[in-house]
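Much of what follows relies on a compact textual record of a protein's fold. A record is reproduced here so that you can trace the correspondence yourselves:

. . .
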Amino acid sequence: MTVGSDRTPLDRSFFDRPVLEVAPDLLGRVLVRLTPQGPIEVRLTEVEAYDGMADPGSHAYRGRTERNASMFGPPGHAYVYFTYGMWHCLNLVCREAGVASGVLLRAGEVIRGQELARTRRATARKDHELAKGPARLATALGVDRELNGIDICAGPKAPLSVLQGAPAQADRVRNGPRTGVGGEGATHPWRFWVSDDPSVSPYRAHVPRRRNGSASPTKLDAKRRGA
């Protein structure tokens, strides 16, 4: 367990703020996933902010759909989406109901439940790779669309919650362009991470689609867009 980590759950007011305030403030917090097989906890080390209809990189840029409805609030809920027919990604919804924004959880260090996470991430060579990337994080935690829209502030028995943890020191927080985002949102410096943490995923720029609509398997992480 992280030294000095606070086990107090974050309340809804934490998420009822602009996404660019919430995103860096999530670094060092502890994401808790309760499953029938046991709990898993992840210290968050990398996130990306997506500002809804004001953000060309966001799923909600063109308005509300069945897929992105959870992004429109209320705050403190999960938005889980399925991408490329293979992966789930987990986002935490911010701001008041009706205003779409969210934070994509890109990476973290599994600090509890490593054995359970390893059963889901058998290809991880080292423990710091268990949740290194948004799809890997969701896979390690057993997150899928069944958790889309759940209240992460519902209490200690909720399937997902976030603890105060040990917030990252300001001098260790870095920011830069988001991974795999193209177009007008490509240069937004809205990816935040803990400097020199081995669990942080490598940055990859946007890779345009091929004419047949496919993407190289080695480029899939670069193609995954956030909330």
